[in-house]
Design brief:
The complex is a heterodimer of chains A (367) and B (521). With 367 residues, chain A is mainly alpha-helical. Chain A is built from 14 helices and no strands. Chain A has helices at residues 4-32, 36-45, 51-76, 84-101, 108-135, 139-162, 193-210, 212-222, 224-230, 234-260, 272-282, 290-310, 317-330, 336-366. In chain A, helix 4 crosses helix 10 and helix 4 crosses helix 11. The longest helix of chain A is centred in the C-terminal third of the chain and has 31 residues, at 336-366. The relative contact order of chain A is 0.19. Chain B is α/β, with parallel strands linked by helices. Chain B has two domains: 6-242, Rossmann fold; 260-338 and 424-518, Rossmann fold (3-Layer(aba) Sandwich), CATH 3.40.50. The A-B interface holds A 1-2, 206, 210-212, 215-216, 218-219, 222-223, 225-233, 336, 339-340, 343-344, 346-348, 350-351 and B 16-22, 25, 61, 309, 311, 330-336, 341, 343, 348-356, 359, 362-364, 366-367, 371-372, 375-377, 379, 398-399, 401-403, 406.
C-alpha cells in the first residue's frame, strides 16, 4: 500500500497537468480570438447549456469508453497497440451487416450483432499480437498501418457490395428495427449503450485485477523477464491482451452504430481510437476510471465543437489540450522535486516515531 | 581554509532516496591527508551511498562537504574529479572491447591534430603511470581479455591519470582471489607513501586490520564513530558494525546425499562474441546435499544458470532433473517439476517492482486451483497465502499490499526467497542468494537454505562470496574458464589458499579427480 500522501500526490499531479493544459489553451485562446471570454464560456460551459447537449456528451462517451477500456488492457501489458481506431470501424461494420441482413427477435439481435463485432475486433488484433510474439515485430507499427488497411477493406465492401444506391451519400441499407439499441430519453441522443459501456468498465476492472489472466497481463507489463522466469507464458499473454483490446473496440463500434446511427456510414477513421489512448493515460490504465475520463474528454470535445461553431477558435484546440495533458502525464519527472520533499518529510516522521518507540521501550525497561 | 587537517570533510550528511529509504542520517566522515581510511559497515549500512555523494553521483538531502577545507557542491562526477577525487567501483566501469590504454584515456584522449586520437601517446601515458605507481598492466590488451585483478588496476590508473589525489575503492577485494588481494594491498601502500589518500570500503575485518590507519563505522545509515585501526580489536569492530557478535558459521548436520536430482552432462556453450563460456561441464547434485560453485565471476557460472533455467540454449550436452530432460522446457514446466531459482539479479528477474508483495509471491502459483474460484481469483486464499509467507519469511513491511520497490534490498530478497522456497522444490538453484543484503537477511536465507537441503531438496549454490560457498556447501566445484577445474568432496577439509590457486587457473585437478562430481561408477 502506498502511503496516503503519496497516493494523494498522484491525484495532485494529475490535476496539475490538467490545469497546465487549460492554461496553455487559455493563452492560445486569448491570443487568437477577439472574443476570448465568449470562446472560453462555450468551451467550458457550453455543453451544460441544455439537457440535450448533456445527452450529446453522454452519447459521445460510449465509443470512447470502449476504446479506452481496450487501450487500458493493452497498455497494462505494455503493448502500445493503436489499432482500436481500426477495430471500432471493423466491428461496427460487421455488426451493421448482421443488423441489416440477419432478421432475429429483438434483444437477441442486438446481442448477436455485438458478438459479431467483438469477434471481428478480436480476430484483427491476432495479427499484431502474433507478429509480435513470433518475430518481435513492433505492435505499434503494425497496428498503426492496420488501421488504414481496415478502413480500405470496409470501404471496399461497403461501396462494392453493401451500399444503398438510392442514397446520395455512401451508406448501407437501414438497420432492422429489432437491432436498434433504443434511446434512454425520447428525442435525445444517448442510448442504453451507455449502460453497456459502464458495465464493461466494471467487468474490465474485475478482469484486470481479479482474474489470473488480468494478473498475468499486468505482470508482463511491469516486468517481462520476471514473468517468463515465474512461468507465465509471455507470448500468449501478449496476444491475449491485444485480442481483448480488439474485442472491446469491436463491441464499441457495434454499440455506437446501433445506438446512434440508423445505417452504417463511417467512411473515414473515426478518431475514437485516439481518444481511447488519451483516456487510458488519464485513467492510469485503471478501467474503473475510464468512464470518468470519458465524460471529461467528451465534455471538452463537445465544448470545443461549440466554441468552433460560435466563435473564431477552431475545434483543433481540443487536440492541443490533449497533447499537453499527454506530455505532462507522461513526463515522469513532472513535480518530482515536490514528491521528493514529501518522501523526505514522511521518512523523517517515520524515523522519529521509531526513535520515540525505542526510547519509550527503554523507559519501560528501567521501571 | 576551514580546517586543513582533513582532505575530506563530510558533515551532517542525510540522504533519503525517492523510495523513502533513509540511507544516511547525520553522518560525519572525516579523512586525513595521506591515510588509508576504512569505511566499514554491513551491506546496506549506507557506505556506498555516502561515497556516491562524495563522488558526485548522488546529492545529499542535507549536510555539507569540504575538500581541503573548501566547501564544495559535488553536483556530478566531473566536478568531483576536478576536485581530485577518483572512484573505483565494485562493478568495473570499463569498455570491454577497447584496449587498456584506450580505457585509461577515455573521454580525455590525446589528439593528433584536431580529429584523430593519438594512440601511441595514450599507450605512453598508460605506461608512464603504470611504472610510476607500480601498477602493472598491458596497455595493448583488450579489457575483455584481461583478468579481474588487472581490470581493477586499469580502474585505479584511470582515476590517477585524471589527477585524483583521493581514491575511493568500493569493496575492491570482493572480486579478487587471495593472491590478487595481497598484490593490491602492496600497491595501495605504495600509493599512500607517495602522499595519496585512500578511502577503502569493506566489511571484511581481516583486511581492514591489515591495511588501514583509521576507520569510520556505519550502521543502519548512522556513523558509529571513528577509530584508530591499531587500537581496535576485531571483536570490537564487529560489535560496532552489527550491534552484536556475529556468528559467521552456519550450523548444519553432515549431508546424507541420496539419489541424483540434477544431472548435467558435457554441457557446452559459446556466447555471442564467439567465446566458449562452458566447456564439457558435467556434474551431479544429489538429494539432500548443497553443491557449491566457486570461481571468479565471468567464468561460466552465469551461462550455466541461464541454461539450467532455459534462458539460453547450450551448443551441446544434456540436463536432466529426476531423470527427465529439462532442456527447451518452458519455465512453467520447470516450476511444475519443482525447480526453483533465486536469480542473480533480483531487480530484473526476481520481482515486478511496482507490483505489491502479494502479487510478487504468487507469481509462480497464481493459476493453481486453490487460488481461483472459477474465472475469478480467490482473494481470501491469496491474502492468506501472502500473509503466511510474509510472516514465515519475516518480510519487514506495512502489509502484503505494499509495493515491493519500497522495501530494502534484504527484504526484497526475502520476498524472492519466500516464493522460491515455499513451492516444495526438489531442486533449488541459488545464484548469489545474499548479494548486497544486510546481515540479518543473509543469515536468515542461509539458514533456510540449509534447512531445505536437510529436508531433502537438492541445492546448487553459485556465489562469488567465497565465505558463503565454503560455509554453506557440503561439496564444491571450482569454475575456471568455463570448465570445472577442481572438486572438493568435503568443504571442511579444504585449504583456502589452494582454492585460490584453482580459481586463478594456476592449478587444476586431473580429469579423473574432477570426474568424481558426476557420481557415476
Amino acid at each position: 500500500m502506498k502511503s496516503k500522501s503519496l497516493r494523494l500526490f498522484g491525484y495532485v499531479r494529475g490535476a496539475a497537468a490538467l490545469l497546465v493544459a487549460f492554461l496553455v489553451a487559455l493563452v492560445l485562446i486569448f491570443l487568437s480570438s477577439d472574443q476570448p471570454l465568449t470562446a472560453l464560456r462555450y468551451m467550458i460551459l457550453g455543453p451544460a447549456a441544455s439537457w440535450s447537449k448533456v445527452c450529446r456528451v453522454l452519447a459521445y462517451m460510449i465509443p470512447i469508453t470502449f476504446t479506452g477500456l481496450g487501450t487500458c488492457i493493452m497498455f497494462s501489458a505494455n503493448q502500445f497497440n493503436l489499432a482500436g481506431e481500426g477495430c471500432i470501424s471493423a466491428g461496427g461494420f460487421v455488426g451493421a451487416l448482421v443488423a441489416i441482413y440477419c432478421p432475429m427477435p429483438t434483444v437477441l439481435h442486438q446481442i448477436v450483432c455485438i458478438l459479431a463485432g467483438a469477434i471481428i475486433g478480436g480476430l484483427i488484433m491476432l495479427i499484431p499480437g502474433f507478429l509480435k510474439t513470433k518475430w518481435g515485430v513492433s505492435e505499434m507499427v503494425v497496428s498503426l498501418m492496420l488501421n488504414y488497411i481496415i478502413l480500405d477493406v470496409t470501404m471496399q465492401f461497403l461501396t462494392q457490395n453493401f451500399a444503398d444506391r438510392s442514397q446520395g451519400a455512401t451508406m448501407t441499407f437501414p438497420y432492422k428495427s429489432t437491432a436498434i439499441i433504443p434511446k434512454i430519453f425520447k428525442g435525445e441522443q444517448v442510448s442504453y449503450g451507455i449502460f453497456i459501456a459502464i458495465a464493461m468498465a466494471v467487468l474490465c476492472w474485475f478482469f484486470l485485477y481479479r482474474t489470473k489472466w488480468g494478473y498475468a497481463i499486468r505482470m508482463v507489463g511491469i516486468n517481462k523477464e520476471f514473468s517468463q522466469y515465474s512461468g507465465i507464458k509471455v507470448g500468449a499473454i501478449i496476444i491475449l491482451c491485444q485480442v481483448v483490446g480488439g474485442i472491446l473496440a469491436g463491441m464499441g463500434g457495434v454499440v455506437t452504430q446501433l445506438g446512434y446511427f440508423s445505417q452504417y456510414r463511417w467512411t473515414a477513421l473515426t478518431g475514437y481510437g485516439w481518444d481511447g489512448i488519451t483516456l487510458a493515460i488519464l485513467a492510469a490504465n485503471n478501467p474503473i476510471f475510464i468512464p470518468v475520463a470519458a465524460f471529461f474528454v467528451a465534455w471538452l470535445q463537445y465544448g470545443c465543437e461549440l466554441m468552433n461553431t460560435w466563435t473564431t477558435v477552431p475545434v483543433e484546440m481540443m487536440d492541443l489540450i490533449s497533447v499537453v495533458i499527454f506530455l505532462f502525464f507522461a513526463a515522469e519527472q513532472f513535480l518530482s522535486g515536490f514528491r521528493q520533499k514529501l518522501v523526505v518529510r514522511e521518512t523523517k516522521k517515520e524515523l522519529a516515531e521509531k526513535a520515540a518507540q525505542q526510547t519509550g521501550k527503554g523507559g519501560e525497561a528501567h521501571v | 581554509m576551514q580546517n586543513s587537517e582533513y582532505v575530506v570533510e563530510m558533515r551532517g550528511i542525510d540522504k533519503i532516496y525517492p523510495n523513502g529509504i533513509a540511507a544516511n542520517q547525520g553522518v560525519d566522515f572525516l579523512v586525513k591527508k595521506g591515510e588509508i581510511h576504512a569505511l566499514m559497515g554491513e551491506n546496506g549500512a549506507g557506505k556506498s551511498t555516502l561515497m556516491k555523494m562524495l563522488f558526485g553521483m548522488e546529492q545529499p538531502t542535507n549536510g555539507e562537504i569540504y575538500i581541503n577545507g573548501e566547501k564544495v557542491a559535488l553536483t556530478s562526477p566531473t566536478v568531483a574529479i576536478a576536485h581530485g577525487i577518483g572512484m573505483v567501483h565494485q562493478h568495473f566501469m570499463l569498455v570491454p572491447s577497447l584496449t587498456v590504454a584506450e580505457n585509461v584515456v577515455l573521454g580525455m584522449e590525446p589528439r593528433k591534430g584536431k580529429l584523430f586520437v593519438d594512440f601511441s601517446k595514450a599507450i605512453a601515458l598508460t605506461e608512464e603511470y603504470s611504472k610510476k605507481f607500480n601498477l602493472e598492466v598491458d596497455p595493448n590488451a583488450k579489457v575483455m581479455d584481461i583478468p579481474v585483478g588487472m581490470k581493477q588496476k586499469v580502474e585505479i590508473l584511470k582515476a590517477l591519470v585524471r589527477g585524483a589525489k583521493i581514491l575511493i575503492l568500493d569493496e575492491p577485494t570482493a572480486v579478487l582471489t587471495t593472491q590478487e588481494t595481497v598484490e593490491l594491498f602492496r600497491e595501495l601502500v605504495h600509493l599512500k607513501e607517495q602522499g595519496y589518500t585512500i578511502i577503502f570500503i569493506s566489511h571484511k575485518l581481516k583486511e581492514i586490520k591489515e591495511i588501514t590507519d583509521r576507520m569510520t563505522i556505519l550502521r543502519g545509515g548512522r556513523s558509529m564513530g571513528v577509530y584508530n585501526t591499531a587500537d581496535t580489536s576485531e571483536q570490537e569492530i564487529s560489535r560496532l558494525m552489527v550491534g552484536r557478535d556475529v556468528i559467521l558459521t552456519v550450523q548444519k548436520d553432515q549431508a546424507q546425499p541420496t539419489a541424483p536430482v540434477l544431472q548435467v552432462r558435457e554441457l557446452e556453450y559459446t556466447n555471442d562474441w564467439n567465446r566458449k563460456m562452458l566447456n564439457k561441464v558435467s556434474f551431479t547434485v544429489r538429494k539432500g546435499e548443497i553443491l557449491g560453485i566457486a570461481g571468479v565471476e565471468g567464468n561460466g557460472q552465469r551461462e550455466l544458470v541461464d541454461i539450467l533455467y532455459n534462458f539460453s540454449k547450450p551448443d551441446a550436452g544434456q540436463v536432466t532433473v529426476g531423470g527427465k530432460s529439462t532442456l527447451g522446457l518452458h519455465q512453467d514446466k520447470l516450476r511444475d517439476m519443482g525447480i526453483s531459482l533465486i536469480p542473480e539479479d533480483r531487480m530484473i528477474y526476481g520481482i515486478a517492482d511496482s507490483a505489491s508483495i502479494e502479487e510478487n509471491v504468487i507469481s509462480d502459483r497464481f493459476d493453481k486451483k486453490e487460488f481461483n474460484n472459477g474465472p475469478l481469483f480467490n482473494m481470501k486464499a491469496i491474502h492468506a497465502e501472502s500473509q503466511r509467507l510474509v510472516e514465515e519469511y519475516q518480510v519487514l513491511c506495512k502489509s502484503p499490499q505494499q509495493q515491493v520497490k519500497m522495501l530494502s534490498g534484504g527484504n526484497i530478497q526475502k520476498v524472492v526467497v519466500a516464493r522460491e522456497f515455499s513451492s516444495e522444490p526438489v531442486l533449488i538453484i541459488a545464484d548469489q542468494p545474499t548479494r548486497g543484503i544486510d546481515v540479518g537477511a543473509t543469515e536468515f536465507i542461509r539458514k533456510k537454505l540449509v534447512e531445505l537441503s536437510r529436508a531433502g531438496a537438492a541445492v546448487l549454490l553459485v556465489s562469488a562470496d567465497l565465505n558463503e560457498v565454503i560455509e554453506l556447501s557440503d561439496s564444491l566445484v571450482v569454475f575456471h574458464g568455463g570448465e570445472i577445474v577442481a572438486y572438493f568432496e568435503d568443504t571442511k577439509k579444504m585449504d583456502e589458499m589452494e582454492m585460490g590457486e584453482y580459481m586463478l587457473g594456476l592449478k587444476r585437478q586431473s580429469p579423473e579427480e574432477v570426474r568424481r562430481v558426476v557420481h557415476e561408477k
